[in-house]
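User: Putative membrane protein. Structure?
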Amino acid sequence: MCYWENEVFGYSYMNGFDYELLSFIFVVGVIAILVGVILLMKYRYSFFTRNGKSNEAIEIVKLRYARGEIDLQEYEKLMNELVK
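Assistant: Predicted structure:
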């Protein structure tokens, strides 16, 4: 009988139920971590895209300013309205 086999006088430190419980806790922990990472990524993505809405309007204003279709005052006015 060897100590590293986790047996003392023929009894193991952990029986089958303990391994099942630890496995269940491990699986629940991994699922919780994955759900947390997914929710964090969703939150961060929605934060940078203005609360889940597309920032397409901002891109259009930038493009119109770059093309010279609108002047600086109009650009700043539109950007202030879109960022609110």
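The longest helix spans residues 16-48. Strands lie at 7-8, 11-12.
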